[in-house]
Amino acid sequence: MDIFDYHAQKAADMDRPLAERMRPAALDEFVGQSHVVGPGTLLREAIEQDRIFSMILWGPPGCGKTTLARIMASETKSHFVHFSAVLSGVKEIRAVMADAQSQQKLYRRRTILFVDEIHRFNKAQQDAFLHHVESGMITLIGATTENPSFEVIAPLLSRCRVIRLEMLAADDIATIIKRALRDSARGIGKLNVTLEPEALKMLTGLADGDARVALTSLEIAASLVAKLSDDSSRAGLRSISAKDLEAALQKKALVYDKSGEEHYNIISAFHKSLRGSDPDAALYWLARMLAAGEDPLYIVRRMVRFASEDVGNADPRALQLTLNAMEAFKFLGHPEGELAIAQVVVYLATAPKSNSIYAAFSKVRQIVKKAGSLPVPLHIRNAPTRLMKEMGYGSGYKYAHHYEDAIVDQDYLPEELRDKVFYTPSGRGYEKIIQERLDHWNRLKRDLAGKKKDRESD
Fold it and tell me: CA-CA distance, 268 to 276, in Å (whole number)?
């Protein structure tokens, strides 16, 4: 390469997107995923000892899957092939395998085949990897945002270890942003820009755990601020404010602090809108939280609590559907999975309400706290030994299924709490049926008790 080629290459490198330029080249530069590449972890040991194994990197967009694969290739001196499942087929797979064979024979170099979006390959395409992974011709590193259990064929999955990568934390995103601001060689250090605290907070929120989004947004905002500064003949350090970010990204900074007062204000408004049976308000607060970067699983956890506390047995399906929404979001991720959450928000808001379970359990806890460890009545104790039977354990117990309607006049609470009632159904929704059932059983028990008295008097 002559001097002209060198300068042309340098210019071309700086024309690449900031997210690509700032991609870490070594493991020590890698930010986040300490549970995967931290000191003493399996993967870090494998990289440092040059014993890379075939694996599937499973995680959300922008969490470092491609970067980690490139680092593995560079730190193990392997031949690296980047393969896109979107653009390639079986023909291209065969060409890569031929190249891998040449690398092994001529240079004794192992080939790391990185397959981006491996879940997009069909069964036949995935089958084409099997023999080569098994023979050791290639070390396969697949990347996917989807659950490999559903998207990768079982034979291939059994030959790979699944490495779960998490969404980058806000602190990790902030570290990546600050590094790009300082770096003059690969980052935007030469633009002499800085981020105001509110702007940094806003940018980490907008990134939603995606480093690529954070760096792309930073590049757009920095370019705009630098241009405005040049046009106004301002010199010195350029500061990017939250308003500058809004102007550059065409996104409004929402007032929301995940760990501060507004966080609790909005989740409170959401909960009370559900309790007040207002689906429109509940959907609005849901959208506010999601747009501000709140963790959807935190929202769903609150909804699971709501399903038991405020709906309860008035609609027993509410709890199951809420758990289904959680699984749907885990399966689909952003943004598709958010619709499942919205669906259940409307269901909970429009479901009949009852806090009877919550009230009953609160009463029971108070009784337990006040009365202490009351003894279990003898007739409902377990009697696995002869001694226990001789002591009266289980004596006089009536097996409900031996009686009509499986109802028997028998006490199950400690003597001190006999006839105590904790659960009173609300009479709304399914609890109306529960109340009718309990009333029927109580009448049967009273009749049985009356017959017993008549027999004893005779």
Answer: 12
3-state secondary structure 382-447: CCCCHHHHHCCCCCCCCCHHHCHHHCCCCCCCCHHHCCCCCCCCCCCCHHHHHHHHHHHHHHHHHH
DSSP string, 320-371: HHHHHHHHHHHHH-TTHHHHHHHHHHHHHHHS----HHHHHHHHHHHHHHHH
Tokens representing 191 are 């633009």
Give mean pLDDT, residues 170-184. Answer: 89
For 193-221, write each residue's pLDDT tens digit. 888 888 888 888 777 788 888 888 888 88
Cα gap 89→122, rounded to integer Å:
9
Q: What is the DSSP string of 126-185?
A: HHHHHHHHHHTSEEEEEEESS-HHHHS-HHHHHTSEEEEPPPPPHHHHHHHHHHHHH-SS
DSSP 60-98: -TTSSHHHHHHHHHHHTT-EEEEEETTT--HHHHHHHHH
Average pLDDT on 5-18 reads 56
**Strand partners of residue 57:** 143, 163
- How far is 211 from 24, CA to CA, in rounded Å? 12
Q: Is the pLDDT of residue 186 over 70?
A: yes
Residue 256 pLDDT grade (very low, low, confident, very high; cuts 50, 70, 90): very low
Three-class DSSP category at 289:
helix
**Which residue from 399, 306, 406, 388 is spatially nearest to 348, judged by alpha carbons?**
306
